[in-house]
């Protein structure tokens, strides 16, 4: 089955009215859409080149993927079903939290076993990882947005998990602080980061 594209604009406009009807429609859409997206990634995980599928770390990812596919079997017909479905996809999102480090470990195991210094030398693996991580972002965005619409007290300017007053400068500052924290932890020091821009500018 083909997956359906969903734009941020549509999610923002749809989520601006989180009525029971809209939440039900959102859940019904995800009920059909998420298994398609997750199944595509699960199938790819089972057929990766160079034996990556058989690496211990990747084998731990597969059950999480198939769990996501087989979890949403019941049809969503009312608000009670929608709430149960929302709790279920929250659990799926949590179960997938460690997928990125697990895949990174799997690639490290592969590089060690075939004596390869860089993933860039394995172009097919590189393309798969690009697809895999982009798809993962999309899946988590869809789940997070639906779950976020249930927040009874959202932050000002937020529709689900979409911040309509996003400050690029604040995002850059947070990212730089995270990077410096990692540097300090790993190397004991970190360079200073200067960020230039209008601190009052926000999107959209």
Count structural domains: 2
- End-to-end Cα distance, whole Å, is 34 Å
User: Number of DSSP helices?
Assistant: 7
The CATH architecture of the largest domain can be named as Up-down Bundle
Strand content: under 5%
The neighbouring-strand order within the major sheet is 1-2
Which ranges are low-confidence, i.e. pLDDT below 50, for 5 or more consecutive residues?
none
Record field, number of beta strands: 2
What is the 3D form? flat
Give the biggest beta sheet.
2 strands, antiparallel
CATH level 1 name of the largest domain:
Mainly Alpha
Catalytic activity: L-seryl-[pyruvate dehydrogenase E1 alpha subunit] + ATP = O-phospho-L-seryl-[pyruvate dehydrogenase E1 alpha subunit] + ADP + H(+)
Protein name: Protein-serine/threonine kinase
Family: Belongs to the PDK/BCKDK protein kinase family.
Pfam family, one: BCDHK_Adom3
Overall description:
The structure is a single chain. By secondary structure, this protein is mainly alpha-helical. It folds into two domains: 8-161, Butyryl-CoA Dehydrogenase, subunit A, domain 3 (Up-down Bundle); 166-204, no CATH class. Helices cover 64% and strands 2% of the residues. The protein has a two-stranded antiparallel ribbon. A hairpin with a 2-residue loop joins strand 1 (158-159) and strand 2 (162-163). The longest helix has 27 residues, at 20-46. The chain starts with 7 loop residues before the first helix and ends in a 17-residue tail after the last helix. Its main location: mitochondrion. Keywords: ATP-binding, Kinase, Mitochondrion, Nucleotide-binding, Transferase.
């Amino acid at each position: 089955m083909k997956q359906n594209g969903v734009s941020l604009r549509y999610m923002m406009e749809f989520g601006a009215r989180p009525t029971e009807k809209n939440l039900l429609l959102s859940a019904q859409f995800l009920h059909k859409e998420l298994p398609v997206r997750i199944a595509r990634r699960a199938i790819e995980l089972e057929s990766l080149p160079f034996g990556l599928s058989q690496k211990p770390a990747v084998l731990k990812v597969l059950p999480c993927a198939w769990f996501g596919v087989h979890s949403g079997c019941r049809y969503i017909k009312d608000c009670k079903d929608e709430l149960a479905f929302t709790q279920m996809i929250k659990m799926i999102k949590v179960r997938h939290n460690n997928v990125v480090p697990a895949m990174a470990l799997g690639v490290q195991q592969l590089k060690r076993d075939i004596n390869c210094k860089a993933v860039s030398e394995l172009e097919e693996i590189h393309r798969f990882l690009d697809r895999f991580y982009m798809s993962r972002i999309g899946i988590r965005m869809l789940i997070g947005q639906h779950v976020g619409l249930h927040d009874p007290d959202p932050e000002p300017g937020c529709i689900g998990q979409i911040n309509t007053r996003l400050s690029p400068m604040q995002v850059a500052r947070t990212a730089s602080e995270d990077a410096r924290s990692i540097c300090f932890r790993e190397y004991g020091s970190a360079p200073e980061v200067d960020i230039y821009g209008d601190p009052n500018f926000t999107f959209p």
